[in-house]
């Protein structure tokens, strides 16, 4: 789980708790020390609440809160360290939400994440049966009932196959099994 902001030691609360205590505690170093701890915890929260609309826009959100913002729309930004690339993917991801579960959604998500146009093969049909499918050792091959995503690149080692699998799993139709592969081209 990601948080909006981490510990920001330089941020102090604009409303110190110690100043609101009764005067008997004004010179009490233990009470004031406890209040300073509260101020240190509350400072980042007050900062976030004061400018919350800026946190919801990928163009203005602080770099350390981009993963949190991406989580709101179901994006995983692992493998991308550049804040500029993260901002771009969050903007694209918001548009991709309307296409999630479709061939276009898979295509656009892979292009956004890897910059390569994928080859997508899908079954494109539906089968109905009153009998449960046989998944035993003698079962027929279900590759024709599977979404297949292939990236053709010059250097297959440059593509993280597990990340490709995670991207496809996030945006594919939920009922359809999938496989991913990288080919030399």
TrEMBL record:
Domain of life: Bacteria
Pfam families from the UniProt entry: Tail_P2_I
InterPro entries linked to this entry: Tail_protein_I, Unchr_phage_tail-like
Protein name: Phage tail protein
Species assigned in the record: Gordonia sesuvii
